[in-house]
Amino acid sequence: MPEGDTIFRAASALHRALAGQRVTEFTSVFPKLTRVETDSGVVGRSVESVEARGKWLLMHLSGDLILLAHMLMNGSWHIYRPGERWKRRRDDMRIVIGTAKMIAVAFTIQVAEFHTAASLARRRVFNQLGPSLLAEEFDVAGAAARFRLQADAEVGTTLLAQSVVAGIGNVYKSEVCFACGVNPFRRVSSLSVTETVCLMTTARKFLQMNVAPSSGERIVTYTGMRRTTRRVDPAEALWVYARRGDPCRKCGAAIESRKQGIDARTTFWCPVCQPATGEAEGQAVATKGEPRGKP
Ligand SMILES: [Zn+2]
Fold first, then answer.
1. Burial of 41 from C-beta contacts in 10 A (0-12 / 13-18 / 19+)
2. 240 CA distance to ligand 1 middle (Å)
3. Distance (Å, rounded) from C-alpha 88 to C-alpha 12?
4. pLDDT by residue (tens digit) across 156-167?
């Protein structure tokens, strides 16, 4: 599943490419979407804005029409100039939205719906989204308090629950827990306030660190490299994710992994830096604010 930073990048790139322009072309393989084009017209409207909320992408069109899309596991949005050759197969195309200057193509996205503001407010899952970690007005204390309400749940599972705080995917779930010295299998109720605040601020920081890539601006897919360690070597970009059996970058212990939650998403952690019970002596305090390693 894409992390919040991927969706945020996609929304920003689409906003820059399309906002303020009139739609001149709309095609889709989804019958529900093409019906809206037939019935009330997508072509002729203008793109007002494109934004990310949690892992959802919203394209606001004039006349109270909103395209709601979710990239799920392997969806992506590409932006092309008219006539430019696509970098993915036509068979993978799901939606094309064109203006005189730019063409946005969604490939292999699985969820896409048109809404009015009113129907969007009633949309299940979407209307239950927690505060977005990438929102400018993100309230850390409020999000931490919201997080702590999930007392009986495990920390790793709760980090992935978009209804609590929106934006964290499976990679950052493990990375954030490591940076805060928190074992992802602990109950939320065992967390100190400091640890909870660390999880929220670190999650936001990791997402922000990965929002502005140096390249790939016009193609936004799940496969973009992400980094949490601030190390230059791409092989050292992450602390624990997908490093089962490898030595911990901090203490040298072998990184462990285990499936977690009803969705059985794999979680990675260091058994020494992130002890299973209670507070990791001084860890949360030591890592508060800045994760290990200098920029
Ligand atoms: Zn360690």
1. middle
2. 9
3. 21
4. 999 999 989 998
